[in-house]
Design brief:
The protein has 143 residues and is mainly α. The protein has a domain of 32 residues.
Length: 143
């Protein structure tokens, strides 16, 4: 057992001593070998990367549009959050209904205002121009 350990130790020391020492360079010279670069290969690589980017973005866009539940966590597992989301949806739907009701109420007012404006333009337009406008003098401020 000790013999094997000794042999392994001697072999390890021999291998370490026989390895060549490589000089460390201070900086990487990016210009070294620039004249040997195959520009066609660079263009092909750029095209491949651009195609990958396009495909990845399209897949993500399709997932967001069609299967957004696959991207979002399952909120039904968290009861408090699930209830809060349900309440939020209920409030949102109630606000939409209230907005619809208010829009219906204002439709009558809008038509009345449009009729009044149209009547002023045809009948009272000449009278409105003949009346002198009041000049408003702003109050002077005392310092």
């Amino acid at each position: 057992m000790y013999f094997r350990l000794g042999v392994l130790l001697v072999l390890a020391l021999g291998i370490v001593q026989c390895q060549k020492r490589r000089p460390a360079k201070d900086e990487w010279d990016y210009r070294d070998g620039a004249d040997k670069v195959n520009m066609r290969g660079v263009a092909n690589l750029t095209e491949v990367l651009d195609n990958w980017r396009f495909d990845i973005l399209n897949q993500m866009k399709n997932l967001v549009r069609n299967d957004h539940q696959a991207l979002l966590p399952d909120y039904s597992r968290i009861p408090a959050l699930s209830e809060a989301l349900d309440d939020l949806f209920k409030e949102f739907n109630a606000l939409k209904e209230r907005l619809g009701e208010l829009s219906e109420k204002f439709m009558g007012i809008e038509t009345f205002i449009d009729e009044v404006k149209a009547g002023q333009a045809t009948n009272g337009g000449a009278r409105a121009e003949a009346q002198p406008k009041k000049k408003v003098n702003p109050r002077k401020r005392n310092p």
